[in-house]
Design a protein that fits this description.
By secondary structure, this protein is an alpha+beta fold. It is 36% helix and 11% strand. Strands 1-2 form a two-stranded parallel ribbon.
């Protein structure tokens, strides 16, 4: 198992002062691919948690030939800005509203569970 540091953390360093310091997830995914190249790892099971989960998702989406399998935990989804412009179907809107209302902190006062 290889668990790399994110850019700028741990023992990482930039080889050039001109290297952009960027935490964009696609850049982190490219860093993982560069690490795999340096270690001569052709394909791997890619896994991650939170930011690492999204990084793993991006690797699987952009470099599927490098990914044997994917484990993504508590990451956020890769979205499509184009798809987000289209309105949700009625069923999707209902599911989203129900999902939001079922979280106690987000419920309007009259819908909160009151102690018995």
């Amino acid at each position: 198992m290889i668990v790399p540091f994110l850019r700028g953390y741990g023992t990482t360093r930039f080889l050039s002062a001109n290297t952009p310091h960027n935490g964009q997830q696609a850049v982190v995914a490219a860093d993982v691919i560069a690490l795999m190249d340096a270690l001569k790892i052709e394909r791997a099971l890619i896994g991650g948690y939170d930011w690492g989960g999204r990084t793993a998702d991006i690797i699987a989406a952009l470099w599927p030939q490098r990914c044997k399998a994917l484990v993504s935990v508590s990451g956020y989804l890769i979205g499509s800005q184009e798809a987000n412009r289209a309105p949700l179907a009625a069923a999707g809107r209902t599911a989203m509203v129900v999902s939001v209302l079922l979280r106690d902190g987000a419920r309007p006062r009259g819908l909160r569970r009151e102690p018995a």
